[in-house]
Amino acid sequence: QVQLVQSGAEVKKPGASVKVSCKTSGYTFTGYYMHWVRQAPGQGLEWMGWINPESGGTNYAQKFQDRVTMTRDTSISTAYMEVTRLRSDDTAVYYCARDLELRFLGGWFDPWGQGTLVTVSS
Amino acid sequence: SSELTQDPAVSVALGQTVRITCQGDSLRTYYASWYQQKPGQAPVLVIYDKNNRPSGIPDRFSGSSSGDTASLTITGAQAEDEADYYCNSRDSSGNHLVFGGGTKLTVL
Predict the structure, then answer these.
(1) Per-residue confidence of chain B (108 residues) as pLDDT tens digits?
(2) Which residues of A touch B89 (CB under 8 A)?
(3) Does the beta-carbon distance from A110 to B48 stay under 8 Å?
(4) What is the DSSP string of A11-76?
């Protein structure tokens, strides 16, 4: 079955960077866009952007344009999301979520990874 | 602020029907998808595109759209449907995706 397994929780200081991984299995990694979504404590979902694992092309939400980088390693079917210059309001659970559609940006997310809690604190 | 607007909270009596709405200009052009999230869990897709359900989602969940408003309807709400529900669609530019603020559904 399709599985997305994310890396473990992180604690970072303000100004540092964090890189979250999303290891996939059970499907052709390069066939489906991968999205990243975050959720601050007690808050709603926020779409951060997507990566096309086949081409490496990316598209980021406006507010993350200058601090977020999404990459992938096709040899190990893993997607990555790095946030730089962390602030306290970046404290959130970060999810990877596969697009539902094969070779097409449907914009529907299924399945999701289990989430990675990133805590930014001095 | 989100380009998609949802009511913060809705309640429904057990076994009754409830509609959760999502409003935004982009919904005149693009369909919404809907996600269910229970405490401490990752979201789950329940409706996508015009009115499609992923496998495993009960048929009491359905979606519809009219003008700038998309709706998720639960016909015969069950106790296990108590959760937060989020709509999602393209933004007004069509280039990015955006979530609504979420609706907390209470089943009485």
Answers:
(1) 559 999 999 999 999 999 999 999 999 999 999 999 999 999 999 999 989 999 999 999 999 999 999 999 999 999 999 999 999 999 888 889 999 999 999 999
(2) 107
(3) yes
(4) EE-TT--EEEEEEEESS-GGGS-EEEEEE-TT--EEEEEEE-TTT--EEE-GGGTTTEEEEEEGGG
